[in-house]
């Protein structure tokens, strides 16, 4: 199913850092709240003062368990924390506490739908692992917006250790993606999962969900090419642009006879280009070894079972339920489980009107179109689920046509009142009185003898020339089905 670019197959694997939504840090009690003055949320452990010891935050472990359950992974009964050694000013210990050989979450998969041409296909990306680790601090350079907080900031760099020790779950995929579209769809699905189960707030601008895309190209069927890793993609739009640029760049290099060097690159949104930051270290360069300050992380089956029992229905499970319970196509079910709020809005509408497929059509159509246009979330929709249900009720009991329903919806959106009041005020009630309609039809038939003749001679299209004027004479209130039936009766 992979789409070739200039005869090359694209191979992508993702490493995502999801910041876990705990109140305090992974190994200390300092707060992780975003946006505080530099170094006001760094305690002795975060500053690596001699003699301090890390203490595992159970909340972070519990969130890792929840993630593992959500993606059908194996949750290790015993996993190990390791020291990843490197020097950088924002890392006062000289090592990051991470997991290396035995991560807490192993395997699992993420699947999602993807539009390929006119078709909707299901894609599954296998996960390699997800491990717990701590974030590093931040260097603030002179031009940084935070410069003022570290003196006048000119010609200086400062270190802010507020972020040091923030709990992260690093989620690593197999190299299973074959296009930038698949990569973005995967990232969106992963984002949906972590925010749905509430282990991460998903705020990409604030860095709570950061993706690194490993990209390589190869001739189809050949060995995996050498990858370059695009770091810290913090918007879905940049993700797509960065990967597309990187793919073209690698192909150009190879076509020009160069070989790709493994490297870490950054995407510059201003130029739309990726640029090498450093050549990539190997695992060996980090001299990983088990951290003697932390015992192995032991997770008993009873703990996993308890967490499982307390977890809300997962999007995938809810989607399957929507298919069974409401007889929705799989595609609809997936769209409606994009967020808990959308799913709740759908269920409330479907239950109130008893027409799940119509409810789905309206939510995926008119409702989401208007939400997008006004950049609102469904929680802020001016039309409530009860109102939408009432509107659908008036379509199915033939009070109004679909066309009129759109006008009523607009009225609801603009807070003009309740459904029946708007139908009344706008005079949108469908003409269900056959006598009145027959009178209009007779007049139109009398005024258009040519169409009548052509239709009788076998030209089915001539009917359109009659329906139009009838609808117009009824001011759009005639029921199109009824118009057709009456016309056939009179002309047949
Ligand atoms: P490292 O040890 O450098 O972190 P890994 O083998 O763990 O490397 O892989 C990191 C990420 O890169 C994974 O998501 C993996 O799927 C992806 N990856 C590995 N090899 C390739 C490749 N040749 N092309 C694209 N992605 C790759
Ligand atoms: Mg790795």
Please explain how this structure is put together:
The chain is α+β, with helices and mostly antiparallel strands. The protein has three domains: 4-303, no CATH class; 314-426, no CATH class; 434-491, Arc Repressor Mutant, subunit A, CATH 1.10.10. The protein has helices at residues 58-70, 180-196, 236-255, 301-310, 315-326, 330-336, 340-353, 356-373, 385-396, 402-413, 419-426, 434-447, 449-456, 464-473, 480-491; strands at residues 9-19, 74-75, 78-79, 82-85, 95-98, 105-106, 109-116, 119-134, 138-140, 158-160, 167-173, 209-218, 228-233, 263-268, 273-279, 289-290, 297-298. The strands form four sheets. Strands 1, 2, 6, 7, 8, 11, 12, 13, 14 and 15 form a ten-stranded mixed β-sheet that branches. The protein has a three-stranded antiparallel β-sheet with strand order 5-4-16, with no helix packed on it. It has a two-stranded antiparallel ribbon with strand order 3-17. A hairpin with a 2-residue loop joins β7 and β8. α9 runs antiparallel to α10 (402-413), α10 (402-413) crosses α11 (419-426) and α12 packs across α14. The model has no long low-confidence stretch (mean pLDDT 92). Bound molecules: adenosine-5'-diphosphate and magnesium ion (MG).
């Amino acid at each position: 199913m992979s789409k070739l670019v200039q005869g090359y197959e694209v191979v992508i694997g993702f490493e995502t850092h999801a910041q876990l939504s705990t109140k305090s840090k992974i190994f200390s009690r300092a707060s992780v709240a975003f946006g505080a003055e530099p170094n006001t949320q760094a305690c002795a452990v975060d500053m690596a003062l001699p003699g301090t010891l890390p203490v595992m935050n159970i909340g972070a472990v519990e969130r890792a368990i929840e993630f593992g359950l959500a993606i059908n992974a194996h949750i290790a009964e015993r996993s190990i924390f390791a020291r990843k050694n490197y020097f950088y000013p924002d890392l006062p210990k000289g090592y990051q506490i991470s997991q290396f050989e035995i991560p807490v979450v192993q395997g699992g998969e993420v699947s999602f739908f993807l539009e390929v041409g006119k078709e909707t296909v299901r894609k599954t990306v296998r996960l390699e692992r997800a491990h717990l680790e701590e974030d590093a601090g931040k260097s603030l350079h002179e031009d940084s917006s935070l410069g003022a907080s570290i003196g006048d900031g000119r010609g200086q760099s400062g270190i802010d250790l507020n972020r040091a020790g923030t709990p992260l779950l690093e989620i690593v995929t197999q190299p299973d993606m074959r296009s930038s579209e698949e990569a973005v769809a995967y990232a969106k699905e992963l984002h949906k999962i972590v925010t749905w189960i509430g282990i991460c707030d998903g705020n990409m601008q604030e860095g709570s969900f950061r993706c690194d895309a490993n990209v390589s190209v190869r001739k189809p069927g050949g060995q995996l090419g050498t990858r370059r890793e695009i770091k810290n993609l913090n918007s879905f739009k940049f993700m797509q642009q960065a990967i597309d640029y990187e793919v073209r760049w690698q192909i150009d290099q190879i076509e020009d006879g160069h070989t790709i060097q493994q490297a870490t690159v950054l995407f510059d949104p201003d130029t739309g280009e990726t640029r090498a930051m450093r050549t990539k270290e190997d695992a060996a360069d980090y001299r990983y070894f088990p951290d003697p300050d932390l015992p192995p992380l032991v997770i008993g089956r009873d703990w996993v079972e308890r967490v499982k029992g307390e977890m809300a229905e997962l999007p995938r499970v809810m989607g399957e339920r929507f298919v069974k319970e409401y007889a929705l196509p799989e595609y609809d079910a997936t769209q409606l489980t994009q967020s808990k709020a959308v799913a709740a809005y759908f269920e409330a509408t479907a239950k109130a009107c008893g027409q799940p497929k119509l409810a789905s059509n309206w939510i995926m159509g008119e409702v989401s179109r208007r939400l997008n246009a006004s950049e609102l979330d469904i929680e802020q929709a001016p039309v409530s689920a009860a109102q939408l249900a009432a509107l659908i009720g008036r379509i199915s009991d033939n009070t109004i046509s679909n066309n009129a329903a759109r006008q009523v919806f607009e009225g609801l959106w603009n807070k003009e009142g309740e459904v029946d009041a708007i139908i009344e005020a706008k005079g949108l009630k469908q003409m269900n009185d056959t006598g009145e309609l027959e009178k209009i039809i007779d007049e139109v038939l009398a005024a258009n003898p040519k169409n009548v003749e052509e239709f009788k001679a076998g030209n089915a299209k001539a009917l359109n020339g009659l329906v139009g004027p009838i609808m117009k004479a009824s001011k759009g209130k005639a029921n199109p089905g009824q118009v057709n039936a009456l016309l056939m009766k009179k002309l047949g």
